[in-house]
Target: Maleylacetoacetate isomerase
Amino acid sequence: MLTLYGYWRSSAAYRVRIALNLKGLAYRQVPVHLVRDGGEQHGEAYQALNPQGLVPLLVDEENGGAPIAQSLAIIEYLEEIFPVPAILPADPVERAQVRALALHLACDVHPLNNLRVLQYLGRELGVDDAAKNAWYRHWVAAGLAAVEQGLAAYGDTFSLGTRPGYLEACLIPQVYNARRFDCDLDAYPRILALTARCEALEAFRHAAPDAQPDAQ
Ligand SMILES: N[C@@H](CCC(=O)N[C@@H](CS)C(=O)NCC(=O)O)C(=O)O
Model:
């Protein structure tokens, strides 16, 4: 049994839910409330599982049950253990290009806008909400502009041709975040079109934040 510790609005957990669904894997969810009581991710029970204090976290009972943190480590683990259907391209160059776009979102954009970073800006540095939103939108715009250029390679389809995969698992949660913070996305027609194609698919609909059992 696969168990995913996550939070409905966590875009990193959303990536993993998409990957699990694209692979058709059944999984159990354990919600970790990131806000209530200061955040369950900081509590003793969760810290014992994941000292990084972040979601998602995956536990695969069939494979020893050792907790695996970090969404991309989890997704790559799933790709290794459940290789069919693959979510990365077979060609090494194409695979590296997909990873490069996904990593740009996951490593260069998302961490700057994560909950604890925004909390630090507000609580420790006294940054007001307007300035925090400007910060947020600045980094999203920089990241999405680069990804928009990168998507030119994929035409009007998906990163795997007829179907979405790793790239879309990272992109669609970032778009969800951007919309949540009212970022203007008009400058990214390829991203919007790809997002619409993905959002029509069951794997993405079932992974969406509002469809999660802990959604509020
Ligand atoms: N690089 C990590 C990022 C994980 C992450 O930032 N998770 C957020 C939710 S999207 C979180 O747990 N935030 C809790 C906090 O900031 O206190 C990954 O890809 O898993």
Remarks:
- The domain at 2-85 is CATH 3.40.30.10 (Glutaredoxin).
- The chain has nine helices and four strands.
- Strands lie at 2-6, 27-31, 57-60, 68-69.
- Residues 10-12, 34, 39, 41, 54-56, 70-72, 106, 114-116 surround glutathione (CB under 6 Å).
